[in-house]
Each structure stands twice: as C-alpha cells, then as structure tokens.
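Troubleshooting: if your tokenizer reports a length mismatch, compare your output against this known-good record of 267 residues.
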Amino acid sequence: MDLLPESFETILLERPEPHVLVVKFNRPEARNAMNTQMGADMKMVWEQMYVDPGDTRCIILTGTGDKAFCAGGDLKQRNNMTDEQWQQQHALFERGMMAMMDCPVPVIAAVNGAAFGGGCEFVCGADFAYASTTARFALTETSLGIMPGAMGTQNLPRAVGVRRAKEIILTATPFGAQEAFDWGLVNKVCEPDELIPAALETARKIASNGPIAVRQAKKSVSMSTQLGYHTGYLYEIEAYNRMVPTEDRLEGVRAFNEKRKADFKGR
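Known-good structure output:
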C-alpha cells in the first residue's frame, strides 16, 4: 500500500523508517480539531489499513505542531448545524474510531499537546499512549450539553477504572500528563523533544517482532476485556494456532538457535 501525504487534506502521513507509519492530525491553525473532512480522511486511512496494511507494522498517531494533539470536534463548524448534519458528521467520527480500533497494526498515540473531547477519545482508543509533559487531557462534552460519543465511556474506564472515568467525564475537568500517567491513561511521560523519538523507539521494537504474531497477540489482548476468562483463553489458542504453520515461526526459532536477529517476512 502506498498512502501518500498529499492524498489527504487534513491528515499528514509520514514514513520515518521501514515498517513504521506516522499519522498526524494536520489542522494546526484549528488546534487539529476534527471537521467533517478530517472525519472522512481518518475513516479512509484506518479502513485502508484494515484492508491492506502492506509492510506497515506499527503506527504512531500524533498531531502537527506543539500546541495540540487534537482539540476534538471543530465547534466553529458545528455551530448552528442541523440535527441531521450533526449526526451525519458524527457518523464519520464513529466509523473512524471503530476502524482505528479494528486496525490490525498496533497504534501508539504520541500526545504532543491538548487532547480534548474526541482527541482524548483517540488516545483512549489507541493500543497505548505516550505523552509530552505539555499534554493536557479532558473529556469536555458534558460541559457542552452532550457526552462522549467516540467510545470514550467504554475505553476510558478500561484505562483508568470506572470511578475515575466517571469523575473525568462528569466534571469535564482537564488534567495533565502526570495525572494521565498516574491513572493509567498513558504509559510514559516525555519531554516535548523526546516524545516522538521515544514513540519511534517503541515502534521500532514492535516492527522488529513477527508481524503475524504481533497482530494476533493484539487481537487476543483486546478481547480479554470482552470475553469470560475461559472463552478468552479459547480465543487466545485460536490466535496462537494461526502462527504455528507460518514461515515466521520457523525463522524465529532458527534465528534464536543461530544467535542472530530474526528476519521476519509476515508469512
């Protein structure tokens, strides 16, 4: 797959090194807020990655600039929208979020600034997240007379616990990177100039592992909160057995015994 940066109006795609794709919210003049076009662009990116990720083995999701990761829905565009227009736009956001969560390739959110509303929900929907010390988080929807509608009420409790999630959502109060780390929303806090290098280092580690193994493990872990313990284990074994007949499994064991780095092909 060849997803070129110029293919999208509001999303910037970069390939800093083999097997790693960086997806950037790219409306810095609007704090990377999501308008209708960005909803359509995001939906297309994640759907294409689901259909054929090509040689992409890890994705970093971040924002352009140093002020905002994503400020959520563009309230200037949403001002005076009809009910029908609002719901049609939100349907794009809904499908984009589900497509990202269904992406077979691991997604690391690198939160470089404000992640409010839907932006915070993208952080919650990623596989895990790193944050700059300057990052700020909030689910502000209840202060606008609405509520989170991009899996926020489902993903946030899984990250920080139900009681903390209720406090965050019901008060709509912003919080900082250290609190996000302490509560389990992000895995690491970095100095601003170290955020992307740290995310790239982790992406590089993931990309060096067997791509089929990584994808199967991601699916199995994701199901752990949705299935009973025994059923989840049956799912794990089904995912495990998918790797037994692969070339990558043979290469991994061979490389270990030959004391060299494995050269995985995704086959």
